[in-house]
């Protein structure tokens, strides 16, 4: 609830003598612009550099005096500084805020000379003053807040006035920010704001519209009983509404008895007005506008189809923010968009293909598609909806050759998701195609087969293997999909085959495959898959290994097999014996350290086996291996170690 | 979901930082109003924590510039680079972005802030990372504390990683957070200002090379010094918005001018930020509008329209002689294989740029025809356009134009005319340092006037070899070499190629300096540690290599560095020739605008001019005797 953070209970009566303050300030030695610059830098840097300025008393007063000095060059810079650190200054008291508002008035009322007093300065002063008011945590003197609001209202009360239109727009933004922080602050004067909004025709009409929309939003969300047609309360002088002064009325009202206090008819008229001309908004303005309109529409139970007709066209826009607005609308009103899922999904898929767009927006489009699918499937809203029309367009997610690898990776994710929807169809019909899609999809990163194992293509390919393999099997305990189903799947079988071929054709990929297996072994839910892969490698890879020095790259795999007590050690031991024989035979003057390093590795695997297998089937072969090594191995250290183990 | 008072449905920015190449913060801006909303949300979220001691609290404080920079450096070390690994690799640690295993974590990052008051390792997320020139731009949008918690769970998970379409995922967070999307828009707008290329799309007229931007239309084509938004003469922002064409393609574009060496214009940035998002909530990110307002202001003679509301995106109304200009820009990407088993892949990315010098707030409409023939696949429009349902072959576009140049619509299409350059490129290494090559090309086959090829250059890049000399004479054009490439200019200079096709052949040899093994710093490698730890993995099979070529390739491939995820593949692993060209006269897709069918309401006499420009993007001839990247043909 945004409405709880403020309190207007401070007395209206206190008014500080301005002369006292001025005298106080006069006693300070002013800082030079260079001093200010380094002070600002030190504050931004933080830590000890900031503390060194704490000895200067009345920094804030000094700042305000500098801002008012005619030829002070850093006015805007200094104002922004005060704003940025407003929540850091402990001496942001009423005195200061009063002086601040006086400074604001002086600057706004000074004629613009485009040198010292510029429009930018005026705008910044309005924004920063408002910002400081909102973000200071102190309880405020109501007189001060009323005086700020009143000043802003006077500014905006000149619709269509030419030269100061930008400043009027900024003042609207200030009021909107105040209304956002103190909900219902302006609800009594909503009628005036509406008529200003109707009258304004310059480009700042967006700011008037957003201000009015916020006021309506708060009236509806906080369930306030006011008439927005009635303009009997004058715009100025401005008084904080009585309801806000009493206590936190807004929040208590909203849920008191479930009845609506607000005037339904009037609010619907206001809505009709607001929905008349959204085309005047910028894309950013539209995001703000819809963030307020959606909750109003929900509360007033407006027909969502109206919103759909008005805003659905934005899915054809190339501005990602507008597209996202439609997605939010869709998620809020599932039912009104019945039948439109396919079009949304199609648009997202097309956006991901727009080569002119920045990569990140193409990635976002695919994420949105995945996310929508998930939110819809997880049954947000009352009804379960069917997933996005993946099966219809699944195959258009094949990566293009020039797609950046990041995009290829996400497109492969989507292909994996499509596989999930294919799987739900009858197996005979789709069995082949699952494998085909998998293989075709991987073509785009197939260079992993010959590039160095550290290549990005390899990383993307193995990431895709993982996605295709575990498919839709989530890590929730409640998920009924079992590892057995995955093990029986076509994907698992073809992946198994692929990995085997890969190891035989290209041994340098073995460490990558081991990392892949490790990933599965480390997962509580999918460790069986890793085990099954190791079993397959033991059965089908070990017998086919060619004896040469390159076998070294396979040792990580041997280690994993040795560690796993579900795999009988016989095959591995046979292989290691053969390898030791090979090493002994090949040993010669040019061998260098090879015999030593490879032999030590073999012994390492043997040790791993001893630690993990507690069965007699190990001992016969292991003792043969060690005995052979003791007797014949050319490297003395290895031989000694073997004897020690034996 | 949207009941949070617009807090989450909208887009607000908590802070902006810009870091230089030394990882020092050179600019920062925070928005205390937004920060206050964040703190309030954290307070109520952390109150729940006491009720349920299992969950943990959210980091509610805000880092100083030095704390942020320290955290950024720490992440860079942990994740190997400023962007990070992006996908889960063996070096990824639990809690890191790459643990989430998603490429978008190279753009949306999390930092762990160490702060005295709240202890170490406080997660700050989501930070939008946009790198432009030498600067890293970080934008922190406002999200709800529960989103940060959800992300923290994703990067701490102990299982093997996300299943597609299941589990709690990054995708559902991203759908739920328009503020992230908005923050990317902010990041790009700021990036353009930092790099000094915030220019409008290019629109061509027959009389002069290009037409200026918004300010020019206000000031009668007299650019205001310093902030003129006149489009660059040749390199249009159109090009700068096409990542593929600006990205370093192999090492072809190494000599492109480096942006980012310019000093940061902090005043311009400060003004832009204050006007575009005064309270941290973006209102308008159009740099040209904002700077026009800053420079020109408004006078009492700037009257709003009598009966219409002036849109926020059109602060000024045009006055003067009325006309409309349309320019179709197309970029052709092609992967030409000349192999039976892999079909060639040619695609056209196009857009219609527009400039409407019309008084008042008129609506403009015209029909788009020939969509079917052009196989136009994507159509997305400028927000000022109203889009009716797509017809099969015909679609009317109606729009209320903004000031200045803008991209009216974008499309993807096939190449209706067939490839402008066909043929093959063969390169064969006859010894370790000598390659024999042959080009046989046909240019503009079947292309009729007015299609004119203004220039055409074929470049053979050898980024990893130094070219010592070359031998051979092309049947047409001239040849030159650079240190790492051979350039063949087929069509150049004033005489374009029009109304006929030409054949061009070029046999020759190229000699390289002896190959030197390049050792990689292992920190850059992707799966480095697992592959490299076995330093005695042999490459001793040089003798059994079938031929010289494979041997050389193998040797060169072994120390190829992994490419960034933003690249389509490892360019350096392949031999290819890249064709650059420019074609004028008509579009290649068949997309066109008939100036006579442009109608304006309320009716006014304004001539419409139309022009086209086709340039090459990645137009690649893969060496038919070597390896080549490919992808399975798409099925729709």
From TrEMBL, chain A:
GO biological process, one term: endosomal transport
A Pfam family recorded for this sequence: AP5B1_middle
InterPro entries: AP5B1, AP5B1_middle, ARM-type_fold
Any one annotated GO CC term: AP-type membrane coat adaptor complex
Tree of life domain: Eukaryota
Span of domain AP5B1 middle: 264-646
PANTHER family: AP-5 COMPLEX SUBUNIT BETA-1 (PTHR34033)
Protein name: AP5B1 middle domain-containing protein
Automatic annotation (TrEMBL), chain B:
Domain MHD: residue ranges: 321-584
PROSITE patterns with a match to the protein in the record: MHD
Topological category with respect to the lipid bilayer: Peripheral membrane protein
Pfam family for this entry, one: Adap_comp_sub
Keyword Nucleotide-binding attached: no
GO process annotations (BP): endosomal transport; protein transport
Matching InterPro entries: AP2_Mu_C_sf, AP5M1, MHD
GO cellular component: AP-type membrane coat adaptor complex; cytosol; late endosome; lysosome
CDD domains recorded: AP_MuD_MHD
Keywords: Membrane, Protein transport, Transport
Cell compartments where the protein resides: Endomembrane system
Family: Belongs to the adaptor complexes medium subunit family.
PANTHER family: AP-5 COMPLEX SUBUNIT MU-1
Protein name, UniProt field: MHD domain-containing protein
């Amino acid at each position: 609830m945004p409405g709880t953070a403020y309190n207007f209970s401070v007395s209206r009566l206190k008014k500080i003598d301005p002369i006292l303050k001025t005298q106080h300030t006069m006693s300070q030695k002013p800082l030079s612009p260079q001093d200010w610059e380094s002070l600002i830098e030190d504050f931004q840097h933080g830590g000890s550099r900031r503390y060194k300025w704490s000895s200067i008393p009345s920094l804030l007063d000094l700042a305000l005096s500098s801002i008012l000095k005619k030829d002070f060059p850093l006015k805007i810079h200094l104002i922004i500084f005060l704003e940025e650190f407003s929540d850091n200054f402990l001496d942001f008291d009423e005195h200061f805020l009063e002086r601040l508002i006086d400074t604001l008035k002086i600057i706004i009322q000074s004629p613009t000379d485009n040198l010292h007093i510029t429009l930018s300065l005026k705008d910044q002063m309005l924004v920063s003053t408002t910002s400081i008011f909102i973000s200071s945590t102190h309880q405020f003197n109501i007189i001060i807040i009323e005086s700020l609001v009143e000043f802003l209202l006077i500014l905006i009360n000149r619709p269509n006035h030419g030269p100061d239109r930008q400043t009027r727009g900024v003042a609207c933004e200030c009021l909107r920010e105040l209304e956002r922080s103190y909900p219902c602050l302006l609800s009594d004067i909503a009628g005036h704001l509406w008529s200003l909004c109707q009258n304004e025709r310059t480009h700042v009409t967006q700011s008037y519209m957003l201000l009015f929309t916020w006021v309506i939003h708060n009236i509806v969300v906080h369930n306030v009983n006011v008439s927005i047609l009635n303009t009997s309360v004058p715009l100025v002088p401005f008084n904080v509404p009585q309801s806000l002064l009493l206590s936190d009325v807004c929040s208590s009202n909203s849920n008191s008895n479930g009845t609506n206090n607000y005037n339904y008819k009037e609010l619907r008229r206001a809505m009709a007005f607001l929905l008349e001309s959204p085309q005047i908004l910028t894309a950013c303005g539209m995001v703000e506008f819809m963030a307020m309109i959606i909750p109003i529409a929900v509360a007033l139970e407006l027909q969502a189809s109206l919103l759909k007709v008005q805003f659905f066209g934005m899915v054809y826009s190339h501005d990602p923010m507008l597209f996202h607005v439609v997605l939010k609308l869709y998620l809020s009103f599932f039912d009104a968009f019945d039948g439109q899922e396919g079009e949304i999904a199609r648009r997202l898929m097309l956006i991901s293909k727009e080569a002119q767009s920045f990569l990140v927006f193409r990635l976002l489009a695919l994420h949105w598609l995945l996310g929508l699918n998930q939110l819809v499937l997880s049954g947000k809203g009352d009804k379960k909806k069917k997933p996005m029309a993946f099966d219809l367009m699944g195959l258009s997610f094949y990566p293009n050759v020039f797609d950046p690898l990041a995009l290829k990776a996400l497109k492969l994710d989507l292909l994996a998701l499509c596989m999930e929807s294919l799987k739900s169809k009858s197996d005979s019909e789709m069995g082949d195609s699952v494998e085909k899609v998998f293989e075709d999809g991987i073509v785009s990163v197939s260079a992993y087969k010959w590039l160095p194992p550290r290549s990005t293509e390899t990383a993307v390919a193995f990431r895709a293997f993982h996605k295709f393999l575990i498919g839709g099997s989530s890590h929730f305990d409640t998920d009924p999909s079992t590892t057995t189903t995955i093990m029986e799947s076509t994907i698992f079988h073809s992946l198994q085959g692929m990995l085997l071929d890969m190891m035989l054709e290209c041994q340098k990929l073995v460490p990558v495959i081991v990392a892949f297996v490790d990933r599965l072994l480390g997962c509580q839910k999918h460790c069986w898959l890793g085990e099954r892969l190791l079993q397959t490698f033991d059965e089908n890879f070990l017998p086919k290994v060619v004896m040469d020095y390159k076998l070294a790259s396979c040792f990580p795999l041997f280690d994993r097999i040795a560690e796993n007590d579900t795999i009988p050690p016989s095959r591995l031991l046979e292989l290691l014996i053969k390898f030791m024989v090979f090493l002994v035979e090949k040993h010669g003057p040019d061998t260098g350290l090879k015999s030593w390093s490879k032999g030590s590795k073999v012994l390492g695997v043997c040790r791993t086996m001893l630690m993990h297998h507690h069965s007699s089937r190990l001992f016969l072969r292991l003792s043969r291996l060690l005995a052979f090594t003791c007797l014949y191995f050319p490297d003395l250290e290895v031989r000694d170690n073997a004897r020690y183990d034996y | 979901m949207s009941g949070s008072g617009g807090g989450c449905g909208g887009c607000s920015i908590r802070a902006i930082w810009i870091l230089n190449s030394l990882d020092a913060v050179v600019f920062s801006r925070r928005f205390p109003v937004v920060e206050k909303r964040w703190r309030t949300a954290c307070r109520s979220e952390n109150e729940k924590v006491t009720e349920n001691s299992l969950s943990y609290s959210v980091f509610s404080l805000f880092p100083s510039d030095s704390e942020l920079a320290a955290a950024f450096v720490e992440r860079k070390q942990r994740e190997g680079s400023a962007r990070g690994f992006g996908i889960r690799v063996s070096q990824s640690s639990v809690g890191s972005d790459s643990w989430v295993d998603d490429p978008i974590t190279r753009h949306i990052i999390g930092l762990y802030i160490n702060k005295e008051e709240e202890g170490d390792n406080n997660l700050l997320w989501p930070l939008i990372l946009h790198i432009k020139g030498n600067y890293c731009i970080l934008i922190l949008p406002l999200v709800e504390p529960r989103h940060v918690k959800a992300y923290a769970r994703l990067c701490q998970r102990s299982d093997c990683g996300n299943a597609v379409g299941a589990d709690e995922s990054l995708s559902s967070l991203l759908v739920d957070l328009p503020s992230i999307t908005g923050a990317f828009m902010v990041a790009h707008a700021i990036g353009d200002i930092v790099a000094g290329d915030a220019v409008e799309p290019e629109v061509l007229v027959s009389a002069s090379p290009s037409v200026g931007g918004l300010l020019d239309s206000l000031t009668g084509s007299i650019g205001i010094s310093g902030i003129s938004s006149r489009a660059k003469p040749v390199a249009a922002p159109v090009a700068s918005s096409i990542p593929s064409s600006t990205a370093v393609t192999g090492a072809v574009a190494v000599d492109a001018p480096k942006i980012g060496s310019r000093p940061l214009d902090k005043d311009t940035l400060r003004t832009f930020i204050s006007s575009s998002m005064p309270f941290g909530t973006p209102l308008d990110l159009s740099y040209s509008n904002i700077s026009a307002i800053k420079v020109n202001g408004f006078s009492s003679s700037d009257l709003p329209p009598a009966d219409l509301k002036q849109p926020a995106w059109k602060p000024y109304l045009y006055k003067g002689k009325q006309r409309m200009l349309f320019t179709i820009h197309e970029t052709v990407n092609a992967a030409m294989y000349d192999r039976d088993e892999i079909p060639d892949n040619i695609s056209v990315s196009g857009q219609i740029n527009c400039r409407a010098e019309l008084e008042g707030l008129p609506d403009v409409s015209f029909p788009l025809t020939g969509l079917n023939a052009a196989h136009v696949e994507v159509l997305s429009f400028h927000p000022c356009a109203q889009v009716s349902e797509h017809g099969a072959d015909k679609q009317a576009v109606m729009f209320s134009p903004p000031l200045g140049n803008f991209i009216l619509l974008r499309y993807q299409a096939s190449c209706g005319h067939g490839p402008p350059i066909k043929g093959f490129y063969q390169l064969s290494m006859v010894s370790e340092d000598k390659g024999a090559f042959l080009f046989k090309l046909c240019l503009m086959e079947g292309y009729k006037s007015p299609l004119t090829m203004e220039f055409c250059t074929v470049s053979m890049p050898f980024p990893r070899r130094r070219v010592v000399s070359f031998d051979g004479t092309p049947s047409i054009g001239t040849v030159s070499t650079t240190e790492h490439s051979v350039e063949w200019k087929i069509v150049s200079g004033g005489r374009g190629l029009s109304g006929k096709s030409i054949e061009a052949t070029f046999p020759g040899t190229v000699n390289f300096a002896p190959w030197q093994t390049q050792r990689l710093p292992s920190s850059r490698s992707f799966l480095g540690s697992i592959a490299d730890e076995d330093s005695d993995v042999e490459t001793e099979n040089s003798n059994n290599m079938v031929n010289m070529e494979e041997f050389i390739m193998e040797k060169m491939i072994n120390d190829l560095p992994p490419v960034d995820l933003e690249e389509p593949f490892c360019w350096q692993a392949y031999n290819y020739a890249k064709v650059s060209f420019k074609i004028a006269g008509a579009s290649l897709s068949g997309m066109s605008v008939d100036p006579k069918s442009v109608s304006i309401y309320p009716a006014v006499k304004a001539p419409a001019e139309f022009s086209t420009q086709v340039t090459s993007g990645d137009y690649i001839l893969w060496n038919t005797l070597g390896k080549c990247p490919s992808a399975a043909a798409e099925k729709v």
